[in-house]
Amino acid sequence: RGGCSGGGMASCRRLSGAGLREVLGPAQGLLFDCDGVLWAGERAVPGAPELLERLRRSGKAALFVSNNSRRSVAELERRFSRLGFRGVRAEHVFSSALCSALFLRQRLLGGGGGNGNGGGRVFVLGGEGLRGEVRDAGLRLAGEGEPAPGAAEPVRAVLVGYDDQFTFAKLAQACGYLRDPQCLLVATDPDPWHPLSDGQRTPGTGSLTAAVETASGRKALVVGKPNTYMFDCIVERFGVDPSRTLMVGDRLETDILFGKNCGLSTILTLTGVSRLEEAQAYMASDSAAAKDLVPNYYVDSIADLIPGLDE
Amino acid sequence: AALPGPAPADWAQAPLDPAVRAVLVGFDEHFSYAKLCQALRYLLRGGPDCLLVGTNRDHRLPLEGGAAIPGTGCLVKAVETAAQREAFIVGKPNRYMFDCVASEFDIDPARTIMVGDRLDTDILMGNSCGLTTLLTLTGVTTLDEVKGHQESSCPARQSLVPDYYVDSIADLLPALGD
Fold first, then answer.
1. Which of A133, A153, A290, B5 could be disulfide-bonded to A97 (CB atoms 3.0-4.6 Å)?
2. CATH topology of domain A13-67+225-308
């Protein structure tokens, strides 16, 4: 069976040989996660730049969808170039930082112009990359350590991202704003941890969001994978057809589930977080939810996709 | 110990104390991402041989005027989420503290009353340990909340319902002899 159907129970088949051509042939484009797929830390995955080049020559689109909320898309464009990937422009890159800013712009500034006060401010728990995307979307930021709410223009949203300067004081400040039920609570992504290059892990946005949710009694709206908002952003800008698009990622609980939720066929690459044994365990599970985490296909590395493309 | 640099990549290189066998999360107004990093490192290094313990799960500590500050439960949840494992919680509603009291004093649950203001900690612990439970209304809980649980068909909510309530513990005085 060829094609890119996203329906039915996936069977985690290794992609190679004739199967590879059957799957890649009809595809109009591929969505790639970045960390653990294209690169690990400061090293490109061997063969990954060549794969993107071959996709370009085959006339297939390559777009990028990342839960990493640290960098602006401008910084990501420079990173692609520095790591040896040619021709990737900021407009091809959909990070959770960018999409969270777009989401907040829609909710605070869009559709009717709000209540005339410019939509209110956003309290961001995150670094400069995330803050910059929010500003670029036309939103104003609340400062840290400000006096009690009500002193200035109201804070209409708390945005939790990857914040390596997270403190109890910022958590308390966020909760102060969230006492207003009209104040949104938004998180860039649900990732509980990220791998470091030496095999250790660093806490992710998901762990900080859990603290804010617990303190405020609210559930965050999560922009990133596996939720589908980032795909909506991609469709709005590029109009991709899910039935002709493949999702390539390294994390079952985010990338593969995202593909399933968006109606895309999915390819797990083993150069990142998830192990093949985990995918097989989900496949053997009785739980319906677990089945949605099983990829249609897997490869050891995205370089393995190269033989599936025309010379 | 001081961290060897400003970024998480640096913090992940700081030497770990080889003697650490447990991560204990309590109320910490100086909680930070850097501390969360270090907690995660110890838990990953030790695996099941490194305990993860939380003092309690309170979501928030109320202040006057309806404001509140984040409770220990938030910090416990942050560590649990990063480490993808559950903490052993010492505080109410878990029965560990009751077991501590019962082992030191000769307590007959059938003749002991638990008095508290919070349904999901004080009253739940009391009910789980076979104590008679008495809710006082001078704290976080309103009678309407109790009625809501009482009318629910959910067994978990039923276990939050106290046997008795008073407006204040001062109301107990008339029942005690001179």
1. A133
2. Rossmann fold (3.40.50)
Residues A96, A230: contact at Cβ < 8 Å? yes
Tens of pLDDT, residues B43-69: 999 999 999 999 999 998 888 877 889
Query: A309 Cβ partners below 8 Å, 6+ apart?
Result: A24, A54, A55, A57, A58, A60
**Residue B14 included in any domain:** no
pTM for the model stands at: 0.92
What are the strands, taking DSSP E only, across chain A? 13-14, 29-32, 39-40, 43-44, 61-66, 93-95, 121-125, 140-141, 155-160, 184-187, 193-195, 201-203, 221-222, 245-249, 265-269, 297-299
Q: Sketch the domain layout of chain A as residue ranges.
A: 13-67+225-308, 97-108+119-145+152-222
Interface ipTM: 0.92
Q: What is the DSSP string of A46-61?
A: TTHHHHHHHHHHTT-E
Instruction: Give the CATH number of the domain where residue B136 resides.
Output: 3.40.50.1000
> Is position A136 annotated as part of the catalytic site?
no
B84 in any annotated domain: yes
Is A163 among the residues known to form the active site?
Answer: no
Q: Which overall architecture, per CATH, does domain A97-108+119-145+152-222 show?
A: 3-Layer(aba) Sandwich (3.40)
* 3-state SS assignment for residue B50: coil
**8 A C-beta contact, residue A202 and residue A162:** no
pLDDT tens readout for residues A206-259: 999 999 999 999 999 999 999 999 999 999 999 999 999 999 999 999 999 999
Amino acid symbol at A225: K
Q: B68 and A208 in contact by Cβ < 8 A?
A: no
CA-closest candidate to residue B146, choices B161, B136, B164: B161
Residues of B in contact with A175 (CB under 8 A): 60, 68-70
Q: Are B40 and A203 inside 8 Å of each other by CB?
A: yes
Compute CA distances B178 → A151, B168, B175, whole Å: 54, 20, 10
Domain span at residue B31 reads 21-89
